[in-house]
Amino acid sequence: MTRAPYDERVTNTVTAALELHHVTKRHGVGAAAVTALDQVSLSIPRGTFTAVMGPSGSGKSTLLHCAAGLDRPDSGAVVLDGRDLTGLDETALTRLRRERMGFVFQSFNLVPTLTVEQNAVLPLEFAGRRADGRRVRGLLGRLGLGDRIDHRPAELSGGQQQRVAIARALLSQPAIIFADEPTGALDTQAAREVLGILREAVTASGQTIVMVTHDPVAASYADAVVFFADGRIADHMARPDAGAVAARMARLSARGAA
Ligand SMILES: Nc1ncnc2c1ncn2[C@@H]1O[C@H](COP(=O)(O)OP(=O)(O)OP(=O)(O)O)[C@@H](O)[C@H]1O
Ligand SMILES: [Mg+2]
């Protein structure tokens, strides 16, 4: 039997950074209940950059929340870095997040009392690892934060805070980085810079990144795009280019509006 390449990887725990097995997640109860994820199965190989796209409300953020154990699926299983999240309690999930995951979420805020540099190295310190000061400042410099390293989050713009979160996620080299619209608050030039840095972390250091984006240009930096519609995977595109992604998105949005 021939199966799609994506299906073949579903049970490949050795190489997958993340697996979802028939994950269903509903929000709300009764008549107001919404099925945000409907039997979603996917596998994210280690060392790859995956973009997740789809119309507003299609389930992208719910996917990231379930994958990170911030939300519990109603059914199905999430396996992160070889660990099944299903039976884990909150303490174990918190530890797993701290040790194996990086986040670039707007709601995953920086610590207000710490400087940019202190925020960026926090996960390393939690893990009892030493931060290489030159590497830290080098990365912050490339993210356009070189003259902000001693500032506190309240003294930064939204886009600058997001770039601190990117530095924080990259520095600890977690098993997987989840990013929800990491370039949403950035101008075109800053967005290209950040995407280039994410791309390089995957290509040069074997980092695994899953990034939700609405921007076809951002998606074109990824190795593959997974398209969501109505809580299901509607399509998968390898080696995406911005034009093809935009065309696919336009068809998905038109379907949703019909
Ligand atoms: N806490 C919640 N309570 C009720 N419904 C929710 C909740 N969170 C999400 N939903 C619903 O679940 C569906 C999926 O939401 P989700 O946030 O995953 O979408 P999304 O693809 O991230 O959208 P966007 O592109 O707008 O960020 C939507 O219909 C949304 O209204
Ligand atoms: Mg969202």
From TrEMBL:
<dbReference type="InterPro" id="IPR015854">
    <property type="entry name" value="ABC_transpr_LolD-like"/>
</dbReference>
<dbReference type="InterPro" id="IPR003439">
    <property type="entry name" value="ABC_transporter-like_ATP-bd"/>
</dbReference>
<dbReference type="InterPro" id="IPR027417">
    <property type="entry name" value="P-loop_NTPase"/>
</dbReference>
<dbReference type="InterPro" id="IPR017911">
    <property type="entry name" value="MacB-like_ATP-bd"/>
</dbReference>
<protein>
    <submittedName>
        <fullName>ABC transporter ATP-binding protein</fullName>
    </submittedName>
</protein>
<keyword id="KW-0547">Nucleotide-binding</keyword>
<feature type="domain" description="ABC transporter">
    <location>
        <begin position="18"/>
        <end position="255"/>
    </location>
</feature>
<keyword id="KW-0813">Transport</keyword>
<dbReference type="Pfam" id="PF00005">
    <property type="entry name" value="ABC_tran"/>
</dbReference>
<dbReference type="InterPro" id="IPR003593">
    <property type="entry name" value="AAA+_ATPase"/>
</dbReference>
<dbReference type="GO" id="GO:0005524">
    <property type="term" value="F:ATP binding"/>
</dbReference>
<keyword id="KW-0067">ATP-binding</keyword>
<dbReference type="InterPro" id="IPR017871">
    <property type="entry name" value="ABC_transporter-like_CS"/>
</dbReference>
